[in-house]
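Example record

Each entry pairs one chain with its bound ligand, NAI.
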Amino acid sequence: MLGVGSMGGAILSGLRAPGVQIPKPISVTTKSARSAAEFDGAADVVALASETDPEANRTAVKGAGLVILAVKPWMILDVAREIADALEPGVIVVSVAAGVTCASIEAALPAGVAVVRAMPNTPSLIGRGVTGIAGGSAASEADIDTVKALFETVGSAIVVRESQINDVAAVSGSGPAYLFLYVEEMIAAAKRLGFDEDQARLLAEGTVTGAAELLARSGEDPAQLRRNVTSPKGTTEQAIFVLQDANWGELFDRALAANVRRSEELAAE
Ligand SMILES: NC(=O)C1=CN([C@@H]2O[C@H](COP(=O)(O)OP(=O)(O)OC[C@H]3O[C@@H](n4cnc5c(N)ncnc54)[C@H](O)[C@@H]3O)[C@@H](O)[C@H]2O)C=CC1
Ligand SMILES: O=C(O)[C@@H]1CCC=N1
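Structure tokens for the complex follow.
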């Protein structure tokens, strides 16, 4: 895996969890020697730093049947070009970068290399990720299945058309940030009601994690779970009226559209 920041690190932690069956050790690269050194002593990871070892990325892909590119979108093509002639025959190159198309990654690699885009999210860190997967022109069904199986070791995965990957990023790739923003705002509002920081965090975080777990475990429709809380003529109903006044449908449409627009810009940068 080239790049182990927020997203690469989350995937890597998921892959290192006990019981996950993938070939070890996993070769990874980071930019700084300091972040590579965090893996010192690990039996299951070999980490190299590109700033101190100019061959780090090329060394890491030698012998690899699958390479995950998890650097920033604007670096991905440079990194692809850098490793191009060090890749093994039959390798699958997976990019998690927002925006950047399979075609542009394919153009940076030797002809015929299988490229697959994956759009994961950070709950992969705890085995609860959600990933959308789309194959490029040289990726076979078997390649896509291999990548899907890999991401299923850190959560759930679906195969989509590449034209839908930006939409996956808008919904689930970025989605955890929307929920964390909600929690931040709920904590701030609780504090304005007079709770101290610890109390506000316990109330807001406990509610969100408990409600998410209830949604996951009950298998109920979210609208039904909402109705279960919303007694007719009760208190929740009043808050829901106020929230619905903000027209969340239109707000989400605008937020997701802005997200998709940024993916399109990243593809062109
Ligand atoms: N953060 C997220 O929730 C998600 C991110 N992504 C995608 O994941 C990719 C990485 O994003 P983040 O993890 O958020 O960024 P980040 O900045 O946290 O991580 C980037 C990583 O790349 C490494 N790096 C930089 N230059 C390098 C080089 N020349 N060779 C090898 N490694 C190098 C850095 O040391 C760092 O480990 C992006 O393309 C982003 O679009 C996709 C889905 C979700
Ligand atoms: O913010 C970003 O660009 C990345 C892509 C999806 C989530 N984080």
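The pocket of A1CAB (ligand 2) is lined by residues 98, 169, 173-174 (CB under 6 Å).
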